[in-house]
Amino acid sequence: MYTRSAKQSKAATIASFKISHILAKHKKAFEDGSVLMEAGETLFGDFKNKTLFMSAIRKLQLSRLTVTRRIEVISQDMADKLKHDIMECTYFSLQFDESTDMTDTVQLCIFIRMVFNYMLAKEEFLTFFSLKGKTPCNGGSLSCSWKIAEHTDLVLHTDVRWLSRGKFLERFQELLPEITAFLDERGDDTQMLKNEKWLTDLTFLTDITMHLNTINLELQGKGKTIIEMISAVNAFKSKLQLMIDQLRRKDLKHFPSLKARIPQLNYDTYEAELSNILGQFEMRFYVCSKLANIASFMTYPFSCKNIEELATEIATQFNMNSCSDENELVQIISDIHLKATASDTNFWCFISEDKYPNLRKIALQLTAMFGSTYLCESAFCEMKIIKSKYRNRLTDNRMSSCLRLALSGYVPSYENLNGVNYNHNKVHTFAPHAFGGPRSLEFVSGDRSIV
């Protein structure tokens, strides 16, 4: 009898952990666990063994404080699993980004991308904390209720989440006649909104921003690599050069909005603007451009034409001996057995670490690099849902726990969580010395490089 009671109690505790995990994963409030208790009577009202079901439900511990503790314990379990993976991985990179929560507090989000010796890469939420600063929030929406048109709302751009710029400009341009009429009725000054040069600049800005949004969308999604980013950026730079050449010939096929204002066009001005954007891309992605040849080689090693030049680039970028690199390059390019597996996506898994130590190390390091800050961007979207106006007093630690459960790919060890106490000092502490010192930070990439 005692054994049966103990098993039922353990099962109820495990169920409580699982329900708490589901609540956090779906970004629900802690007190929502009590809803299940209230729904039990309705769900099982017509069941013959209703009493048995209700008895089991009543044993569930789903109060707000209990759910909070459960979420913290699960978060600690996931953090322990992450720490273990960090100690086991060969290289890792960090991705940083910051945004503001609904209280205008600056929050820093950090993701980690780990690569293991068998070439498996894993991306995980690392930590999240407040920078204790505040910035003004420019977000929101402006309702255009005075117009019955295709768009009833004007998406207002926020500096923090910039992806909406293209849509905002496009809708603003389409609604501009109605906006101008509305402002005229109010007696506001609309001289600028009717200025021909300003209107032409607006159409150019709309078109080019949509192009920028396109490349940004290409880099969205989990698991994007540095090689994919280099490919996308190089393609966009080529596209910019193509548009510059076409503007010189007064060809506006890539500028649909600008086409409508041909009489007012100053082609030289917009050609110069495109050249400036191209220059910005060259400058901002300078480091990536230096990796382009190496990335191309790693994608298909047997396309290398100049071994000496590539070996020099590898030695410079990865602090290696160019002579050793040359020897490995000559060997791998001449390896008939490896050439037969060149099209395999797991090609570098077949490479002998003893025979090609440098090349394998480069492949691991490139695999460890992030391709964009998409993970941080998506995390901030989750943050806005979790820390809403109804939960604006959520502490940083609990916010981090909720985000970990919502974003992490780790599966909690529910069976082992029963009886575990939450250790506040153990969770979310990811100092470099905890991961084995300088070795762990040997190669770190992202928006901000750490050496």
UniProtKB/TrEMBL annotation:
Q: Which residues form the HAT C-terminal dimerisation domain?
A: 348-398
Entry-linked InterPro entries: HATC_C_dom, RNaseH-like_sf
Pfam families attached to this UniProt entry: Dimer_Tnp_hAT
Name the record gives this protein: HAT C-terminal dimerisation domain-containing protein
Q: Which organism is it from?
A: Chilo suppressalis (Asiatic rice borer moth)
Q: Top-down, what is the taxonomic lineage of the species of origin? A: Eukaryota, Metazoa, Ecdysozoa, Arthropoda, Hexapoda
